[in-house]
Design a protein that fits this description.
Blueprint (H helix, E strand, L loop, with lengths): L10 H6 L9 E3 L9 H5 L9 E5 L3 H11 L5 E5 L18 E7 L16 E7 L16 E5 L7 E2 L12 E5 L2 E2 L6 H4 L5 E6 L2 E3 L1
Parallel strand pairs: 1-2, 2-3, 3-4, 4-5, 5-6, 6-8, 7-9, 8-10
Antiparallel strand pairs: 10-11
């Protein structure tokens, strides 16, 4: 697969939402089927050296607590099955965040203000059932890799991908079900785009 700079994930890892050295990534989750508590989150205080984390099972209050207390510590965050978070606007407070992966959400309906996320280069959005509008993504000035769609069965719908025309994205992976306006002219206006890939039944399609 295509190789990118060392500060970006490989194409395979990015498509699957995998973090580098994933066997050693710190995993923040609750006990058993319980949601993550503040006590769980505060265990991070003993690990100031960490800069990469995978988070499972946050609800809105836990998400806000995690971001406000420890979010600035991390350069790479993978949110996995945090489906009840309804507002992710606090991500705007993470200027050093480089990679953000978020799999599965049933509440979020719009992007956050990315204008302060000056280090964000890779954004992976998968399995969002209510996010249909990508307006505002042009504020992510450093964004170079974007995944939008689903990891298993394509169901995600977006109104348009035209907001991408004002970005510096080099690699775009579309793995959703439908682009409502069916307008692909945005591709000719993305001046830095090098790779546009569709994922069909788990396979890359040019």
């Amino acid at each position: 697969m295509t190789a990118f700079d060392n500060d970006l994930p490989s194409l395979d890892d990015f498509r699957l939402g995998w973090l580098p050295d994933r066997e050693n990534v710190y995993l923040l989750e609750g006990c058993g089927c319980d949601r993550v508590t503040r006590e769980d989150i505060d265990r991070l205080a003993a690990h100031p050296e960490l800069d990469t984390i995978s988070v499972i099972g946050l609800e809105q209050d836990g998400f806000e607590y995690f971001i406000s207390r420890y979010g600035r510590q991390f350069r790479r965050i993978r949110f996995f099955k945090n489906q009840l978070v309804r507002d992710w606007s606090m991500l705007a407070d993470l200027p050093d965040l480089e990679w953000l992966y978020w799999y599965w959400n049933q509440r979020i309906t719009s992007l956050w203000d990315m204008s302060k996320n000056r280090s964000l280069t890779a954004l992976h959005i998968a399995g969002f059932t209510r996010l249909h509008d990508l307006s505002g993504i042009e504020k992510a000035e450093s964004l170079r890799m974007l995944f939008v769609g689903d990891l298993i069965w394509p169901s995600m719908r977006v109104r348009s991908l035209s907001p991408l025309t004002e970005t510096g994205i080099e690699c775009l992976i579309w793995a959703g079900k439908r682009i409502e306006d069916q307008d692909c002219t945005f591709l000719t206006q993305m001046k830095r785009l090098k790779h546009m890939l569709r994922v069909t039944k788990g396979r890359f399609q040019p």
